[in-house]
Every structure is written in C-alpha cells, then in structure tokens.
Specification:
Blueprint (H helix, E strand, L loop, with lengths): L1 E5 L8 E5 L8 E2 L5 E4 L16 E5 L2 E8 L2 E5 L8 E2 L10 E5 L5 E5 H4 L17 E8 L6 E6 L10 E6 L16 E5 L2 H8 L3 H12 L8 E5 L28 H18 L4 E5 L29 H18 L5 E5 L27 H19 L4 E8 L16 H6 L7 E7 L18 H13 L6 E6 L15 H19 L3 E8 L2 E2 L15 E4 L4 E4 L1 H10 L7 E2 L1 E6 L6 E6 L4 E8 L5 E7 L3 E7 L3 E8 L5
Parallel strand pairs: 3-5, 13-29, 14-15, 14-21, 15-16, 16-17, 17-18, 18-19, 19-20, 20-21, 22-23
Antiparallel strand pairs: 1-2, 1-4, 4-9, 5-6, 6-7, 7-8, 9-10, 11-12, 11-31, 13-26, 23-24, 25-27, 27-28, 28-31, 29-30
Amino acid sequence: MKTYIRAITNDSDEVVEFSNTEAAQDNRTLEPLSFVLFDDPNPVIPWGPESREHLSFLVGDTTWYVWQQGDNIWVSSDPSGSIANKIVGDSERGEVKALIVRSDGSLRMTDWDKAHVVQRTRFKDVGQLAEGEVAQYETRSDGTALERTTLHLQEQADPSYWQTILIDPENFPQGANSPNHRIVGFGGAFSDAAVLNIEAMPPQAQDEILEAYYGPDGIGYSVGRVPMGSTDFSTANYNYCDTPDDFDLEDFALAEIDTKLKIPMLQRANAIRGSELKLFSSIWTAPPWMKDSGVYVGGRLKGIQDPDGDSRYQRAFAKYFSKFFTEYAKHGLHFWATTVQNEPTGSRETKNWELIKVWWESMYYSAEEQARFIRDHLGPVLQQDHPDIQILCYEDQKSSGTHHSTLTHDPLKILNILDAAGVAHYVKGIALHWYQKSWAFMWYKPGDPWCTQSLIDTREKLVDQGYEDVFLFASEACQGYETTSRGTTQDWVTQWKRAEEYGKDIITDLNHWVVGWTDWNLALDMDGGPNWAGNRCDALILCDKDNPSFYLQPMFYYFAHFTKFITPGSTRVVADSTATQGTPMDCTAFKTPDNKLVVVVQNADIHPHKYWIEIKGHGYLNQSIEKGTIQTFVLDLSEPA
C-alpha cells in the first residue's frame, strides 16, 4: 500500500510517494503553518524510528518523527521513539488527512472533511509564459486549492463539447475601457473584530495571515475598508467626539483601537505590499448627540429632515469625516474614498416595515436627505480639506437601488440621490452590498438572487441620465448572517456552498459594471465574532485563540481566483458563454495592465462539464470541469519577442 502526500510545503503542489515497504525518511524542513495532506483514505506511514521507516520533518530546531501504528499516528522528537505521543485530531480515520504544523511548532492531524482547513497561504505569481502557454489554476470541493497546471492552446475546438465560451481580448463592452470603469481592486475590512483576532495570534501567525492577503505570494488584496467608529463587529459602542454640542469638534480623538491596532496593522499591510492600499471608510452612525434619537441604534441627524432647519449638526458631522482623515494621514495613511452611510435604509423608523431588523449602530437617510448632506456639507468640506477623497453614495442592497424596485416601501434610490441639483458634482461612485440574496422579495426578478437586472437597469439609467462615469463598487459581503445559519460552520457542504455563492456574485457583479469587490471582516474567531450585538457572521479566515491557529475556509480560495489575477487597472473584455445543452457556465474575462488575459470559469452545476474556450486570434482550450469547481486561466497576449 502506498501513501501519496500532496502539498508538503505551504507553496508547493508536488506529490511525494512513500511505500510501507521502503525506507521513507524525508528530512524536509517545514515552517510553522505548513501542512501535509495525505490523499490516501487510510494513509500508511512507515513503522518506527529505529528502522528508519518513517517521516521526519524539521520544524524550527525540532525534528519530528511520524509513523503509524495500528489505527493511530504517532509523533516523537526522540529519534528512538521511546517517548511518543498520538497526534491529536478530530479522528484517526477519515477521507483525506491533513498533518498541520501549528503556529507554536507542534503538530495536529485532522480529517480534511471535518477540519474545514486547507492552510495553504502562499501562491507564486504566474511568471513568464511562453507563446501558446496558459496557466490554469483550479480549486475543487475535494480540498484542492489553486492547483496550477500548464496548458497549451490548440488549433481547433472539440466539436463534441456542448459548452462553449468565446473570449475576444480586443473587444470591450461599452465604456469598459474608460479609466472610471477599470478594476479598482479587491480586499477586505479592517474591522475591530478583524484586528483583535489577528493581533491575538502569535507573531508568526499574524505575519502569515497578512502575507496571505497582501504578500507577493499571497492573493493580491489591494483595497482596505476602514470603519469610522464602532460597528456591530466591535466589543462596545464608541465614537470620536462624545462631547454634546461640541460643534467645532475640539474634543475629537481617535479611539485606542485605531491608534494601537488598526493603524499599525494597516501600516504592516502597506509594508508587505510595498505600496499603499486603496483605503475607503464607511460609517455606521454619527455620535449620539448629533442624532434625534440620542442613541447609537437608529435615528437621523438632527435637522436633516428640514431643508431650512438647524444645520449645525450636519456641518459638524461633515467636519467629523474630515478630522478622521486628517488624523489617519498623520500616520501616513491616506484614503481613496469614503461612503456616506452604511446601509441607510436598514434603520428605517416606520413600524410596519424593516429591511433588516437592525439592533446595532445605524442611522437613516432618505434619498433626498443624503443628497442634501452630500451637496451642502460633506462634498464641500472634503473638497476643501481632502480633495483626493472620492465620495461613494448609497451603500445599500443592490436590488433596492433602482426606480423599478418591486418593494412596496420607498427605499433609498440611487438615482434620486444623483438627480438632486449639484450632487453629481461630488459623487464618483455607488457602493453596493449583496445581502439581498437571502430575501426573494428583493430579487427584482424571480430566481435571480444576484440581482442581475437591477445592475443592468442601474447602469442603463446612469448612461441615459448623463452619469456614465459614475462607477459601481461592491463594498461589503459576508456569509453566515442569515438567522437560519448564523455564524461559522464546520459542515463542509455548507462551507463549499458559501464559497460558490461568493463566486456567483462576484462574476455577476464584474460582468455588470462593478469595478471592485470587498469582503467584510478580514478575520473572525471560531464563533464568528467578537460582535457586541450578537450578530455573528462568517469570514474567509478564522482565528482559534485557544490552539493557537488560524484556518482558511473555501471562500478564501474562491475569492483568490479573482483577487490574485485580476489586478487593479484591468479592463473587462467580451466573454460569451453558451450551451447547446444545460445552462451556460458562469465566466468573466479581463485584460490586465501587463497585457495578460485572465478568464475565470465556475461550474455551479451538480454535474461535471466538458467545454471549450475560444480566445479569438489565439486558439482554443478544450477543458473539463468538475461540479463545485472554479478555474482561472492566464494567457500572455504580448507578441513573442
């Protein structure tokens, strides 16, 4: 019986073969947070250190000897094996096993199907591609994560395949090649919960998490969202100026979590990247003394409902934004954009309707109120104090953003904001969330949780009404927010479904004028927190402070198929997916600034497919794709030297 070991180090796809009848001492060096996957359902690790038939791994200054005895797998740092311990895991027998080197250098054996762990954080860049070569990256529901294969273009397609994708690298959808509609980037949020969880990890694990997101062998995050004040993913409510009637904000000061955790972590991320992240801020509420409710949850800015009323609170709130950016700039952190208000319809005051039952920081605006605040206060203040910061309006669910919403209430409408005189001068983009996927009454069109038609209508109306340069930007998404499946999960099927839904929404958004996509918390704890309001959710990375270890979920690898390869400045090209049988597969294609073609294909069907891709002017790829699989293809479009 043979045992096959895949991905023996963090950044390798190699396969190493061992046999129970041969000496198998390996003497490899594994860094903390590396892992070994045993592909055999019942791995056989050779017997005993004394016979030299075993695996040995150097971790730091310790050599670990690993062998199997009966149903148990043993480990020892003693070459004789006289002092040995059974490797702790979820069980000793299962499908695919993962031997993980933990942050403290110890080992843990887990069953792959129970562990929701891949632990692979390093992925080298595509590198040089010869003429006709295509780099394929594939993530499958068997746990394979961004596995690379080199393919070669063919001269013709296989006519027996019924799924086809036509890519024209020189054909751009209308306006897609304009500077305002090229890719801004992808990223996640430096929420309080995220920085607290990462900071709780050992230094080596902290570095590994940040390298996974921002390092040269990571997944290429280029955008960072920074909450302005507390959110539900904080440990308590707070703001930056809690002195009533301090209209000049003389007592304004950043919170300790900003100065001690967020700012240092943002600086570390920039240092790892070697360049600045595109930062944007979002705010959940004004300080309570500025609101008619006097509390963090719900309410409006005082005086906002009366165009001719008391505007002192609005002026102070606009200055609040400016002071936040000024304080961060003192630490070398400069913002690209800000949204006006996180989910302004979520805290609607009427008793007969609520989009979401909100019990965390929130503040309501009507479309007319948000327009006035931008035009009369926020826009002029930022133009004077921080002219490089762009304003993104709306920041609510996709489906309620059009005039044709099927909702019976009066939601905040995107174009109502822009139609107000003088507002479009300040607004550069529209921020969108994705949470409508769980509420069929919001889908706009039956069977479309990704609200495709809403995106189409929004874009068409922007063009028709002279706002063609206003871009769409996805500013927040997460899983595990539904009351029926709140928080994290160890169920592999659910985890994979969550990853597939990310892929579906990202492809839909990118194909309909969205220029960036932002995940919510960079990291959460094993229960999906901390969250003072009990509104726990899921995240790409989970931190286990008790072990201590961190875990990368399938969503991380799905998202990487976009973030790693569709670089900032990329331009969408025409990609037509068709099928003579079944439903066409989801796909999107982009031309990068360094003249590479990136094609992402997802099979969300329950059946595998064979298909071919025609890259106009270059050739064909005859492909197969398993169910629950996402593939990214990279081709160098440059003329050969």
